[in-house]
């Protein structure tokens, strides 16, 4: 059992849920939390909107996308999840007991589910790190609220160029590099920005012709950051 937990720690330890904890503390918590681990193949549905909620999900390996359908029936990507990211935390404490959105594996994935009552409930072994776990969860919920506000900005922006420029500038600020390797393909990026794939491709080509960017497949080089920042306002 301890050996299995040590193996699980190697992946789970990268999750923000276990921030500021030692290896020993995380392994002790995992033993207390008794999480469930499941594997999914590329393009397989991990969780469907409306299904019974299983627990807060943690991506141990691979990449997944959180998606919803808008009023027109089109798929909108809410978030892209990588190793260490969590999902379902907003639903965990809502009392609804249902998954609010669909999660789809973009690559082969390994997912760990943590029951919410184990996070906020009384710790059986009075782990000293349980308080840290709760504080980390509160920070995650706060960050998620801010992220949803950011997503709302994309949905309310009317300009296709403005949406693209805002996304590229945000990626630039995160990495500090003018050459970006986007985590989303064209279809996924169009879904995320809530625009059509042809509109996205057309505007990217116009921005390239105007000298704002250059691109090849998933790589984009920002050539005129000042103009892109103006477009993103």
Description:
The chain has 233 residues and is α+β, with helices and mostly antiparallel strands. It has 2 domains: 2-155, Sandwich (Jelly Rolls); 157-232, Winged helix-like DNA-binding domain superfamily/Winged helix DNA-binding domain (Arc Repressor Mutant, subunit A), CATH 1.10.10.10. It is built from 9 helices and 11 strands. The chain has helices at 2-12, 23-33, 89-92, 116-120, 130-156, 160-175, 186-193, 197-209, 225-232; strands at residues 36-40, 45-47, 56-61, 64-69, 75-81, 86-87, 102-105, 109-114, 179-181, 213-216, 219-222. It has a 4-stranded antiparallel beta sheet. A hairpin with a 5-residue loop joins strand 4 (64-69) and strand 5 (75-81). Helix 1 crosses helix 2. The longest helix is centred in the middle third of the chain and has 27 residues, at 130-156. It is elongated. The relative contact order is 0.14. The mean pLDDT is 85.
């Amino acid at each position: 059992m301890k050996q299995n937990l040590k193996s699980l720690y190697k992946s789970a330890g990268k999750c923000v849920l276990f921030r500021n904890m030692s290896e020993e503390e995380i392994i002790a918590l995992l033993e207390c939390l008794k999480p469930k681990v499941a594997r999914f193949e590329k393009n397989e549905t991990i969780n469907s909107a409306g299904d019974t909620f299983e627990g807060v999900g943690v991506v141990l390996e691979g990449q997944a996308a959180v998606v919803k359908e808008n009023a027109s029936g089109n798929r909108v990507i809410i978030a892209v999840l990588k190793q260490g990211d969590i999902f379902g935390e907003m639903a965990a404490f809502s009392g609804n007991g249902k998954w609010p959105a669909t999660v789809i594996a973009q690559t082969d994935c390994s997912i760990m589910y943590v029951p919410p009552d184990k996070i906020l409930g009384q710790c059986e072994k009075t782990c000293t790190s349980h308080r840290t776990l709760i504080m980390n969860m509160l920070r995650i919920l706060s960050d998620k609220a801010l992220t949803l506000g950011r997503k709302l900005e994309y949905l309310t922006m009317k300009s296709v160029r403005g949406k693209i420029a805002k996304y590229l500038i945000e990626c630039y600020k995160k990495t500090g590099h003018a050459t970006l390797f986007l985590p989303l393909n064209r279809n996924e990026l169009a879904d995320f920005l809530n625009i059509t794939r042809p509109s996205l491709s057309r505007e990217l080509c116009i921005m390239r012709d105007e000298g704002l960017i250059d691109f090849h497949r998933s790589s984009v080089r920002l050539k005129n950051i000042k103009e892109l920042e103006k477009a993103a306002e």
